[in-house]
Amino acid sequence: MASLSIQGVSKTFPNGHKVLDDITIDVASGEFLTLLGPSGCGKTTLLKAIAGFHPLTSGRFLIDGKDVTALPPERRNTAMCFQSYALFPHMTVAENILFGPRQNGAGKAECHARLEAALQQVDLAAHATKLPSALSGGQQQRVALARALAMRPGVILFDEPLSNLDAKLREQVRFEIRALQAEHGFTAIYVTHDQAEALAMSDRIVVLNGGRIAQIGAPDEIYDRPATRFVADFIGAANILKADILGLAGETTWRVRTDLGEFDIRSESDPKAPKHFVCWRPEAAEIVSEAQAPQTNTFRALVTAQAFQGNVTDVLVKSGASDTAFRIQTRRPLAIGASVTLRVDPASLCFLEAAT
């Protein structure tokens, strides 16, 4: 395992498009860090720059304190798992896994030891003599991971490795990769546009937008306390309202006025501007009886649409006080046209920057 320091990295393509803008991230040894964002945000460019496939316009990379910015890919102490797996179709599983160590001059005994260990780690010992075409998509992905592990790298780079798998298999392999990383402690930089994948696998998530860092944090922090409207909208579903700050309603509680009424928001930080946006997740709203509803943090709404998802039902509601439809989640379906009183706990609301 190895630490990785990304320091002031920028990248501008020859056509003048700036795809990375002053990216600085410190990745701890053994950390699983995910680069998350929409298409074109710069996440894959950053990953390939770490690998040595893209030269930088400015900035540098340090692995275990050593500046590797000018080194070729094979000398950076990294290995890569590609989206397409990039397995040699004419080579067996064993030959694919050993390609890297042999290229690096490992001896016969060392190659044998690395092969045995890698096959054991991904549970493919019984398939060593097969060609990739004889394997399922999930097995091919495990071969690609075994090939990376056999290189004994300090950092493994994952370029959307599960995007070619069906949903059920993707979930299974997601757990396998995370379990292997936790067991063997390699540092992982993982690129995806799948929010659920990022939330499930990461120690920390870097949300990128337009080549810049929108937010860095643990999965629960990114989900529960998004810093900007972009992050709130991109990570899961979010209900967002404009709000005027009225003042403190408690030691760490702020009262705001919205189109839906007044809300109290629990926040350790002092909102700097008088106007903000506030956000809450669909599952944070609970249905309460009108008689028990408090004066703040509640509003009445009509059920306009719903979609049964199995364990929950996604429900769209609309309040006469606002033109915006809001999403909530319930355990059971509701009647279309039904009137409900909803409450959102102050701890489930957060401020978003007004300019985003």
TrEMBL record:
SUPFAM superfamilies, per the entry: MOP-like (SSF50331), P-loop containing nucleoside triphosphate hydrolases (SSF52540)
InterPro entries membership: AAA+_ATPase, ABC_SmlMolc_Importer, ABC_transporter-like_ATP-bd, ABC_transporter-like_CS, Mo/tungstate-bd_C_term_dom, P-loop_NTPase, Transp-assoc_OB_typ2
GO molecular function: ABC-type transporter activity; ATP binding; ATP hydrolysis activity
GO cellular component, one term: ATP-binding cassette (ABC) transporter complex
Record membrane topology: Peripheral membrane protein
Keyword match Nucleotide-binding: yes
Pfam families, sorted: ABC_tran (PF00005), TOBE_2 (PF08402)
Domain of life, source organism: Bacteria
UniProt domain ABC transporter: residue ranges: 4-235
Keyword set, alphabetical order: ATP-binding, Nucleotide-binding, Transport
Compartment(s): Cell inner membrane
Family: Belongs to the ABC transporter superfamily.
Descriptive protein name: ABC transporter ATP-binding protein
Species assigned in the record: Rhizobium chutanense
